[in-house]
Amino acid sequence: xxxxxxxxxQAGCRITAxxxxxxxxxxxTEWPLVPQEILALGVKLHATLSLxxxxxxxxxxxxxxxxxRVHQDDKCQGYLLxxxxxxxxxxxxxxxxAVEFPGQDDLTALIARVEKETGYLIAxxxxxxxxxxxxxx
Amino acid sequence: xxxxxxxxxQAGCRITAxxxxxxxxxxxTEWPLVPQEILALGVKLHATLSLxxxxxxxxxxxxxxxxxRVHQDDKCQGYLLxxxxxxxxxxxxxxxxAVEFPGQDDLTALIARVEKETGYLIAxxxxxxxxxxxxxx
DNA sequence: TAATTATTGTAAATTACTTTCAATAAGGGA
DNA sequence: TCCCTTATTGAAAGTAATTTACAATAATTA
Lengths: 137, 137
Prior knowledge:
Chain A is built from five helices and five strands. By secondary structure, chain A is of the alpha+beta class.
């Protein structure tokens, strides 16, 4: 049983063909995919896969931190497999390829400063970078 | 003529009652508003204001950097008046109130590090914080 | 292997957003 | 100041995205 199947199982969820299809599609792709795109690729793996199920599966996977939702100017429903331990996303503006990178430590100073300046107690941060990947340069 | 009217005028756009209404609504509110909410508040200032116009106005204002779009888990169309020179948003998870803060400098080191590690050339960054504001604590 | 119940897919409903187009009104020039 | 040009508006229709309802199916557990 692979890691994500473990996670699912431990959460009391079932491992099904549609869920395998969605997971496999995401595992094969290096850029954020929207539900429609996941469906299009997923039906090749599980013929009866439906859009509703894609939505539901993504919602579940996100709750279990198996996938991460990525917001971009044109679309806010791009999904990406979560790299363990890493926290932020860097997306290529040419080809869309995304990589993740750790960034917790770099932000602690900034967060402390902003807490002091604003009086807010900061609970979560959300950092996303955009640029050009090595291949596209 | 106020600053935003100058900006509009210089861009060759007209200053109209609907646009004034939208601007005034945003100026009065400290948290991100979605088009529907802007409409609801805006009709009090300009009775015939329509949702279509709200969408179009926000699109224009965003192009002119008069407003900023804010993404949150539940909604991706929250609009906030842009504070000049400042770059990032901090939103209270209790009341929704948002403040902006400057953050360019704190990120340059992080960006340089990630460029080196990933080989990407970073063009833009997007940082958003979530927390609890002084009033809600 | 059977029973339980989580999960799925179809279809319909809802919500969000965009486009079209005729009517209106802003603002530059006479 | 008034007229004329044309940007802007709002109603309505259209499209796309997302959610809900529910009966049928299939994954697990005993």
